[in-house]
Amino acid sequence: MGSLNNGHLDSDPEDDKEVDLELRRAVRELLEGMGEDSGREGLRRTPLRVSKSLLQATRGYRQKVKDIVHGALFPEVGLRKEIGQAGGAGGLVVVRDLDLFSYCESCLLPFRVKCHIGYIPSGHRVLGLSKLSRVADVFAKRLQHPQRLADEIASALHDSINPAGVAVTLECSHIYIPNVESIFVDSENRGWLEVVVSAGSGVFEDRRSDAWIDFVNLRKSRGPTVNGQRTEDDICEYWCPLVATDPSSIEMLYPELTALVTSIIRSLGENPVRKELAGTPARFLKWLMNFQNASLQIDLGNLDICPLDPSRPKRGENGHTEHLDSELNLPFCALCEHHLLPFHGVVHIGYIHAQGSNPPGRSLLQSIVHFYGFKLQLQEKLTRQIAETVSPLLGGNIMVVVEASHCCMISRGIEKIGSSTATVAVLGRFSSDASLRAKFFQSIRE
Amino acid sequence: MGSLNNGHLDSDPEDDKEVDLELRRAVRELLEGMGEDSGREGLRRTPLRVSKSLLQATRGYRQKVKDIVHGALFPEVGLRKEIGQAGGAGGLVVVRDLDLFSYCESCLLPFRVKCHIGYIPSGHRVLGLSKLSRVADVFAKRLQHPQRLADEIASALHDSINPAGVAVTLECSHIYIPNVESIFVDSENRGWLEVVVSAGSGVFEDRRSDAWIDFVNLRKSRGPTVNGQRTEDDICEYWCPLVATDPSSIEMLYPELTALVTSIIRSLGENPVRKELAGTPARFLKWLMNFQNASLQIDLGNLDICPLDPSRPKRGENGHTEHLDSELNLPFCALCEHHLLPFHGVVHIGYIHAQGSNPPGRSLLQSIVHFYGFKLQLQEKLTRQIAETVSPLLGGNIMVVVEASHCCMISRGIEKIGSSTATVAVLGRFSSDASLRAKFFQSIRE
């Protein structure tokens, strides 16, 4: 199977430098193909950042499993067979809840992996526990499909530690890919699609075996990590939402850009003609073009609304002439202009609703959120732009809170998986009235 | 304050090599001081691993904040002051739930940090979001106290991005330090002590300011991350459980080993005579010596128990002459012999209880767990040793499951924070009867 020595690229520093320069050039041209000015201050260093993070994200092509396992098999005698199984002779070991990130071979976007690995040692040797995670990461840091990832982890471990068997279960979450036509249906989901896959070798090959049942029981013994609604080995042939799209129309529309993405895949150490990668450049472009400058139009001219007058004096708080109103949890997905990776989350808009006024409905506010969301963006700028746009429609006293997860924060570099970012814009009375802000924060939490 | 250019060591590769060799020598001598054979296979590469991970864990001494912030301030115009605050002109930004690890200056053990950072941009510039985490990590990767860590993060960010203000809240969890005399009181706690600290600069200096209240509200808006039982700014002068111990007796008992730990601190780039570090070598040794070879004695000779006969034939399942019994959640804390870092968790023991027999009580089983726990260990070996020892006391048909968190997996290197490891040993009927094992797994989950 050759996975032990799998390393497509040599690590010659000169080669690395050339690959980096090629990637930067390709990213710069992609930005221009999207209608962006790649020389503007916010984008100037984007090619450098994207190249660096792409190389990090696919470092598995340049790593060898044997270098990781080497020297990490430790003596542990175990028990004599007639007494029982333990330690280095038959004692099941399960490492649970390893957080990894991998990259979808169908669309190049990152996917989250909650990884569980079990093995049964034989030959009076056990593997250093962290090596299970490191070996899994070698295969995660490539362009992958969940099932292949599970298979490769299981067989690489089997080959290198020679155990009675290896069991792998992966809970994979693919980023949901919104497009201009679709509004997120499920904002609770926060943009992830999930499948569960498994692989087993040796005594774990048969899912009905006692060994596999022990693995499942032990994996879950700290609580049900696998959601009840999902089944193991969900069919995930079409798990990437973009697989269903026909690449040929995109390829005809953007032949040069398709060639650029193909060259990026080659630079990373992959073979772009591998059959699973055939439509990948087109699918990546389809996704990317969602965020093309000015691909979405918004017309606020013909709105049937009656904007409030921001200069109107405030009435008594119990006069019921006005009250705090809000639209919460408007979903969005934007593209981080520093890393070309999505950030997604929700927008909350608070405003002072005066009696008799007719503020715009949720769907218009959602359209405004989408208009500024489907772009190369910064969360700070997005927040400000939404605030500037909705303010005249809502009477000038408004507050916008944006809460988002950034793929660039969680899938590469710092890998802060649970982190999220919140930003605020305040206009009119919300700028000066802290108790009004507190009231709005309270309504978000409820 | 100088935090921008703080870097105690030059990065001359020759120096680095020398530091590495010094650290390895010191660790080898420490192992021998604990009564270990540093040449045995399991320990041979421990000095190398510990040196590497200590250098990683304290890399903050060799990093400069200005190198991180450089080039990551991006233009964002914000709003005119008279309209409101947003983006690069007054728009509050909060990055929440950054998982970091730091190292206690009182005892050298790692502590977990859930970090929340807010700042209010000014001057039409915003900082790349990941830089907040990277700057925090520079100070986390040093020997720290929670309050100083918060202060250093806040002032380094304030100095380098020149905002209206910076706010930092840290939820810190110090590993609970068991000793031979103490049994874990709270197994739910799984060995962590918690404090919450804060720091603020500029508009966040006053905790009663509107800015601070907004920060607190925004930090929590995704759900209460700060536990209700803790208050902000818990007094944490004595948060390290070892601070209360008198270092002088340890220093008298182990003068050479104290000198070794002092030399390690110096090698890492710290000043061992800084007043907060005065008793640190002794405290570290006090903790380490808990795991000294054979520091605990166990005597199974005089037990008032009636061991079962493993050769006794099995009765009918409904005959009620025997049933599955168990002792669950026996806490333990061991020292990983590969990294000299603790792993801690719980042991579950299942056995066949025959009518009329008198199995040993929980306290004896707990003593056995402690006996094998307070050592340089591997989880696999610990599981097997406990199984071998309890088997004759419990009739020979037994199963041991150990569930543990490994500091070496979560605080350094792979940093798999949510991960845990489960190991199993089975003897007698548990080896061959999968449904019996499943029944025991079920009882663990309940």
TrEMBL record, chains A, B:
Name of this chain's protein: Uncharacterized protein
Gene source species: Melastoma candidum
